[in-house]
Fold this sequence. Notes:
By secondary structure, chain A is mainly alpha-helical. Chain A has two helices and no strands. Chain A has a domain at 4-43. The model of chain A has no long low-confidence stretch (mean pLDDT 91). In chain B, the strands form two sheets. Chain B has an eleven-stranded mixed sheet, sandwiched between helices. The relative contact order of chain B is 0.16. Chain B contains 14 helices and 13 strands. Chain B is globular, with a radius of gyration of 20 Å. The A-B interface holds A 8, 11-12, 15-20, 22-23, 26-27, 29-31, 33-35, 37-38, 40-44, 46-48, 50-55, 57 and B 209-210, 239-240, 304, 306-307, 310-311, 313-314, 317, 325, 328-329, 332-333, 337, 340-342, 344-350, 353, 355-363, 395-397.
Amino acid sequence: xxGDDQKLDVVLEICGISPLPQDKEIMLKxxxxxxxxxxxxxxxxxxxxxxxxxxxxxxx
Amino acid sequence: MNExxxxxxxxxxxRENEITATELVEKAIETGKxxxxxxxxxxxxxxxxxxxxxxxxxxxxxxxxxxxxxxGIPLGIKDIITTVEGETTAQSLVLDRSWGPAIGDxxxxxxxxxxxxxxxxxxxTMEYAIGVPDWTKPFPIPRNPWNTEHWTGxxxxxxxxxxxxxAFLGGLGTDTGGSIRIPAAYCGISGIKATFGRVPKSxxxxxxxxxxxxxxxxxxxxxxxxxxxxLAGYDPSDAxxxxxxxxxxxxxxxxxxxxxxVGVDTLAQHVGDDGDPATVAALxxxxxxxxxxxxxxxxxxxxxxxxxxxxxxxxxxxEAFAYHVPDFRSRWGDYFQSTRTGVxxxxxxxGADFVQAQxxxxxxxxxxxxxFADVDVIVTPTASIGALSLEELGDLGGGWFRSxxxxxxxxxxNPALSVPMGFTAAALPLGMQIVTRPFDEAxxxxxxxxxQRATRWHLAVPPLAGRYxxxxxxxxxxxxxxx
Lengths: 60, 483
């Protein structure tokens, strides 16, 4: 197993998800891509002091 | 004679007693029946309900009462939006079939019904509005009426191919990363994602809570304006809805673009050799038309292009994962493979990644707002290629995804309209995306409508389509540019 394989297995177990065998290859590819994408976001250093818009309103 | 009715044409015909709503709806039913097997338009048709609504519309016209803005117009509803006529499936084996009926009409459906619209049925989508078709599941495969070996685009697939084929004259799509604009472009019709919060989305199965939009898909920008007039406006049932005044969209459709400042980004640098060369040529020709109509044109580059597309992906996957994770634990195999592996990829993101995505969206909003200090409208291709063949789709990780230029605008929330602007060498439609400042849908619709006064791309009829043999107003001396 590669390091990414092991990381994916860990997060899937944490989330309680058991993919089908035929999904493993796609899941691994998506996992690696997703980590690369997250890294791209962290490259936007000027976002550090932004107040994020999040889904909440005190008004029901 | 125009065989391809717009909503605007049909309303003219209804007001002038040249056609009845019953005739219109019967034609829509006939077209739906004859093409549904081949095109995969519908999940469910509501023929008898539609006939009853058409008869009621005819009574309004016969009595001389003031008709609603959509009185007697046949309309399709994407099957992730609830209606009273039947269940909502989200084209999934997983969604609880009692969920939709418990809600009844979504706010947008009720508004269309109040305006006299005739609901013809629920249209196909991708499962839960994400992913690609799955041949292993018991649902129709939506096909493109321009070439049935090609996809419609998604996820508002059945509304897209249904409008293009004439199964109804307009319909509702939803758009989290481009799901109105991509099928509009691929099927050769018009469609608008309004500003986030402009149209209430309660009664719609969520995909990305902070990205989802419901909006109109129709033949022309004018038709989209008519529909958006009905759909727009605050409703407290949607926590994201914004209480902002809704302008008169139709009165702004003057055809005059004098003084309008248009910024253009071909986005070719982001797709490289994967783009179809016809796209850039078509966009340049379209921009020339805008210039001839009085606009001043400048080139620009969209800031944070890759980052904002990724922000949409991180946000939509994370928000969707939160919705689906209980069912993923127990019914993983019941989902389409592209849905479960696409949404499931959110396990790779941390909570901090999600927050960073929201902060990047703020940075992007400010950068885009700065662009709009110098221009009134931004135009790009909706996608850099025509509709993909169904064989090419694969899973959601396909490289083709970067040829779509829509999800950027979901990240920042601006309104974005797609209108037909030409064809590829393989005779597949191409779309131009017209973007304006938040809550300024009126300017985008004005540009789209003015463009369509000068061109005929939006009136091109695909090989598979029902014909409406109805006399309508003369289309005038439009440039015969449609291939």
